[in-house]
Every structure is written in structure tokens, then in C-alpha cells.
Write a structure and sequence with these properties.
Elements lengths: L15 H39 L25 E4 L5 E8 L2 E3 L2 E5 L3 E8 L4 E4 L6 E4 L5 E6 L4 E6 L12 E7 L1 H8 L11
Bound molecules: dinuclear copper ion.
Dinuclear copper ion binds next to loops.
Length: 197
């Protein structure tokens, strides 16, 4: 055999068996690539599902600022605390430069209370004392959340979004009453606030 003759290389002398080996390797490589893409997509779906489940999206409920005071849910006669026939407690309030309406909110202790609020002008917000009741109030949108106040007492409820020159003087009060006392007062009252005791 001549030493100078190069050994037969794949490119020089492809045969049927070699072509099969190349094809199998390529198929395996692409199977891995496609498998990785599918795995990434499934992981994204799992992540998105868990994310949405753990971080409920803020609801988008709109309201017409121009007719806010005139009719509908936030007309003056509807503001304050209402107890529905099924016992659900709902507080409706409006924020405006530079006060809350009503100025004093009365709620029961130990019962879920749903707040529904909006703003008549600028962006406002409120937090009830040191509780987790905390939201922004944006004109044109209804902010709502449900919370339970564990014990009776009184809280300050300041506006916590800078809304203009009177911002620091904008606050209301929240009176948390023992459940029985609240329910006794709720009978016979359509809308409640601290003044109507
Ligand atoms: Cu309203 Cu700050």
C-alpha cells in the first residue's frame, strides 16, 4: 500500500452506511432543539399561569366622572355603609379635592367589608390606619377591595396620593364598631356613616 495515499475519508468516499449515520445524528440534534423549544414554551405557560394565579390582575371597572354626583352608584344618597339583604357590608365613598365623602365611615368588626370608591377629580388614595385596607382612587375607575377589621376601634384614613395643595389636610375617619352594635344600628338605616348615629 502506498503511504502517500490518504485514507479514505467520509467526504472522499461516502457510502450508504455513513450517510445513515449523518442523517441519524442530524435528526437527533434537531429533535433536541425542538424538544428544548417545546420545554421552554411549556415552562413559560406554567410560569404565566402561576403568576396570574398568585397576582390577581386589578379589575378594570369604569365610571363616568361627569355624572358621578348626579346618578348611579356614587350619587350622594348612596355614599356610606350599606348592609344588603344577604348581610354583605359595602362602603361606598368618593374622594375629591380635598375631602372624602363620607368624612367618617362606620364598619363592623370581624366581618368582611367591601369598599367601593372612586375620585371626582385628581388621583387620590387612602389607607385605613395601620390595616391593610389601602387603595388608589383614580377618576373614571372604581377601586374595590374586601377586608376584615379584626377589632373595634377608630382609625385615621388619610389620602396617600399627592393630589394638590390641600393633600396633607385630606383625611377621613373609620369607626370600627363591635359587630352587634353595628348590626343593631344597621337595622332601620339604609346608609350609615358616623354622623347618623
Ligand atoms: Cu387626595 Cu391627596
Amino acid at each position: 500500500m502506498n503511504a502517500a495515499t490518504p485514507p479514505s475519508s467520509p467526504s472522499a468516499a461516502p457510502d450508504g452506511h455513513h450517510a445513515e449515520v449523518v442523517a441519524v445524528a442530524a435528526e437527533r440534534r434537531w429533535a433536541v432543539v425542538v424538544g428544548l423549544i417545546i420545554a421552554v414554551i411549556i415552562l413559560l405557560m406554567i410560569f404565566a399561569g402561576l403568576h396570574w394565579a398568585s397576582m390577581p390582575p386589578s379589575r378594570v371597572e369604569t365610571v363616568d366622572v361627569k355624572t358621578l354626583h348626579l346618578r348611579g352608584e356614587f350619587a350622594e344618597g348612596n355614599l356610606g355603609t350599606a348592609v344588603d339583604a344577604d348581610g354583605k357590608v359595602t362602603v361606598r365613598l368618593i374622594a375629591q379635592q380635598y375631602s372624602f365623602e363620607p368624612q367618617c365611615i362606620v364598619v363592623p368588626a370581624g366581618v368582611p367589608v367591601t369598599f367601593r370608591g372612586t375620585s371626582a377629580d385628581a388621583i387620590h388614595g387612602f389607607i385605613v390606619g395601620t390595616t391593610n385596607a389601602n387603595t388608589m382612587l383614580i377618576p373614571g375607575f372604581v377601586a374595590t377591595f374586601t377586608t376584615t377589621f379584626p377589632k373595634a376601634g377608630e382609625h385615621l384614613m388619610p389620602c396617600h396620593e399627592y393630589c394638590g395643595t390641600g393633600h396633607e389636610a385630606m383625611w377621613a375617619r373609620v369607626e370600627v364598631l363591635p359587630q352587634e352594635e353595628f348590626m343593631a344600628r344597621a337595622r332601620g338605616a339604609e346608609r350609615m356613616n358616623c354622623v347618623s348615629r
